[in-house]
Amino acid sequence: MFNIEEELRKLPDKPGVYLMHDKNDTIIYVGKAVVLKNRVRQYFQSSRGKSPKIQRMVEQIAWFEYIVVDSEMEALILECNLIKEHQPKYNTMLKDDKHYPYIRLTANEDYPRIMLARERKKDKAKYFGPYTSGQAVHDSIDLLKKTYFVRSCNKVLPRDMGKERPCLYYHMGQCKAPCQGYISKEEYKENIGQVEEFLNGNYALITKRLEQQMMKFSEEMEFEKAAEYRDLLLSVKRLAEKQKADDDMNVERDIIAFATAGDEAVAQVFFVRGGKMVGREHFYLTGVENEDRSTVMANFIKQFYSGTPHIPKELLLSNETDDQELLENWLTARRGRKVRIVIPKKGSKERLVELAEKNASFVLQKDSERIAEQEKKTKGALKEIAGWLDMDNLNRIEAFDISNTSGFENVASMVVFEGGKPKKADYRKFKTRTIDGPDDYASMKEVLTRRFEHAKRELEELKENYEETSGEDIKDMGSFTRLPDLILMDGGRGQVNIALEVLAEQRLSIPVCGMVKDDNHRTRGLYYNNIEIPIDTRSEGFHLITRIQDETHRFAIEYHRSLRGKAQTHSILDDIPGVGGARRRTLMKHYGSLEALKQAEVEELAKLPSMNVRAAQAVYDFFHH
Fold this sequence. Notes:
Layout: H1 4-9, E1 16-21, E2 27-33, H2 36-43, H3 52-59, E3 63-68, H4 72-86, E4 93-94, E5 102-105, E6 114-117, E7 126-128, H5 134-148, H6 168-171, H7 185-199, H8 204-219, H9 223-241, E8 252-261, E9 264-273, E10 276-286, H10 293-305, E11 314-317, H11 324-335, E12 340-342, H12 347-377, H13 379-389, E13 396-404, E14 410-418, E15 421-422, E16 428-431, H14 440-468, E17 486-489, H15 493-505, E18 512-517, E19 523-528, E20 531-534, H16 540-564, H17 581-591, H18 594-598, H19 602-606, H20 613-624
Helix pairs in contact: 5-9, 8-9, 12-13, 13-16, 14-15
């Protein structure tokens, strides 16, 4: 039994990160501290001065843990990683997880190429960006390829020269066929130099070139080609028009402001590169109610810049932020060069921040109805379901379905909804290992047992990992560590009882609910605590349950198709390391069924033709671990 008072006395006088858990072992808050002893104790002292949000959070704390680090900087890094991994309910959360595109120029090749890249790797290529619009990147790449005849193929040149005929782009006049040696390396590199000029913001060269080509084809009365170059010229002018917000030529900064309404906030970011406004983007945050503006700003900066590929040398903010010096040091370490945080009080910089703030307010106002409607369909629906089941808290729902495929195996699907939305990264597929023939109840028991035993293993590994590592070395240990608030079974009483049996064996207490169907196989109610609960089929809660049910079936059907698309000889034995076609045929011919094979010992297996001790051990371990 975790004794909070006793554990508070054991807190160390060191920097670190603390994790608050509720009664279901869910992490509900992650924070950092310069001195763990002082910071964590504050939560359990007098409620005077605490916001309603923090008071609600403290009431739900069942136990806490902490990770000691060497410095406040390490604590900040670890806090960022853990918040991103666990997405705790009471932390201010950045809803968006965007990956901004770059334009990648393979400058290390003899005949370089240009392409879109989602991350900036440590290779010998040159990267331009990041850009906030993927479509703008595609348009720019298309424009440059057409104008400067940049190749689109993946051939290794000059090694592959002359091995194949020129591609369609050559015949369309959009490539000079370096794969055939029709353009010299020097001329090609000269074109690439102009591509770099364009990507660095110098549009004069390409504009002049396009105008010359347009006039040339017009004088030769090749009006279709002239019109094509006219359209390209207009594209360049539109791109250039977007970058009229000039400032100092070498300025590289992000301008950040936000607006709040209740528990929601919108952060507006303007991206300035080379003194030009290259884009803007807004981000939604939740959990900001009763939070100081300085805290909201700090939380946004930590979450946004722990995931964005590029950090500028200056941030202009609309208000002060917590831990400003620490944040500057962290950003500087991530960028590799000095980063400054500035809160302008006058002049053009203040006007830019005010503009960002007005944009944030406009977006929040414009989207308030959409956000409210979305909330009704997600969190509102969860509240309805929680009310039907008399639950205090409902966020994560896991739904399971068993499917029988032709052949040697049963399969199962697990879908996950968090906050009323599908969380596809946590979906899982299972092949049963111990069930021979169609037996939905036995298959479900195996799948649920594996799911929760996996969770225990991951939690043990995670605790070991915390003891051995810190900071950015912390790794994502997988999705099974997060237990559901509710298990939703596609069947009724029988499936629910199987799930409850597994949970009892695993010593877990998680509500289980079954979907009761009418004669047309449509859900009419929920089976919970041995009774059928009727539900309003017009309610948002019912619509959410229907979406979960449909998604569970869709995921299972896709799994069916993927299995049917594979060779018909594929079986569960193919998933055993070291067992190929010959060994699989030997095993099936000798034992005839999975049930008989599972009873075999290692020594017996090793004596079979084409088998050895190592393969025999792998087969035995597969069915017994």
